[in-house]
Amino acid sequence: MITIEEIKNAIAKHKLELPRYQKLYDYYTGKHSILNRKLPDPTKPNNKMVTSYPTVIIDTITGYFASKPLSYLSTSNNEEFIKDLKHIFYLNDEEDTNAEIVKNFSIYGKTYELFFIDEMGNIRFKHYSPIEMYVEKDGSGNIKFAIRQWEETLEDKSKVKKIEVYDSEGIYNYSGDNYSLESQREHYFGETPVCIYVNNEEEIGDYEQLIPMIDSVEVMLSDSGNELESWVNAYLVLGGMKGTKSEDLEKMKQDGAILTDEINQVKFLTKEVNPAFQKNFFETVDKLIHKFSTIPDLTSQDFSSNLSGVALEYKLFGLESKSATKERKMEKALRKRIRFICTILNKQGKDYSPYDIRFNFVRNIPQNKAEISDEIVKLSPYVDQKTLLSLHPDITDVDLVLKRLKEQSDSMDLDKIEHVSVNQ
Known about the structure:
Blueprint lengths: L3 H25 L24 H14 L4 E4 L4 H13 L2 H15 L1 E8 L5 E6 L4 E5 L5 E11 L5 E8 L3 E6 L4 E7 L7 E5 L12 H22 L2 E4 L7 H10 L10 E4 L5 H19 L15 H7 L1 H31 L9 E4 L8 H11 L5 H6 L7 H26 L1
Antiparallel strand pairs: 1-12, 2-3, 2-9, 4-5, 5-6, 6-7, 7-8, 10-11
């Protein structure tokens, strides 16, 4: 059982991490540093233009990597195992959970998944961001324990701190600043029931290193807006007309005209702006952000509608390389998810091995289905039918397709038998 002192130390460490994770979340939700900018002169224009680079980066990679459901295959063709997994996944909204997990570890660099048994005895899992949960590891990198803390509002409107701790033995609930133990229970998983999904080995978010560059673009755009607004509110210079009164200026504004005997004596006082320089600066930084994030600019002319499959793959090479890293890291955590599920199912009388499950990731990318179908036909003499069907992008549930093919085959055989009986 974890000591109170260990819990306090973990909470203190989590508190030190929170500013970084909160900043990453703020940038994803559009709360950028430019919004806090204050100018020395409050009367001057102070536009605050926020770009959506972090949102576009995360939503693009999530849509490409995780918008199509992950499929699970049994290497031993254990249909009962797959059926039990599908039931558990249905209860936990597994497809949406996977997409949210990808989004979260792409933002923060990592995210967590907690496993528990609900009141009905069902296996449940729920994801938490590093803002919501802290995980303590031992010297070997194994999970020692995890904590969640939140505030609850009581009937008298006062707030009380709640802490939930998970270790290899059980789940413990504490309350208040004195860490009073309210309850404890066993979780039956045999180890700390938490999975860690990481974006990369360094646990860095997809746009984290680009924040200074994003800030510079927003400052430039905001300053350009300020210049434009200042030009609209520019001072009017009346050369040699010191006798002009406020009434005269008001009449000029209403008439929209000034009559003068001398040339170039009336003009607006404005600062020279170089729009070409600003455009070049923005386009340069925009390309760098797309380059370093490996997220292609899908609105550019490079992505014309007549690109071949090979050309499109080349354009998406950076994005695919990043997705391959995510896939490897995610598969490692998914294997632990299956291990947790097998632990409980085997306690209930099953005999499943977590090593029996294979994962099939499908990218959300336009594909030449005719070419894929042709490749499947060519491979048919050498590859089993289940693997072949899993290669087609339109087939997400291979087992269902195989079941229907068997029913169709059985029906055709029955028709032949009936036809022979009638002829006799």
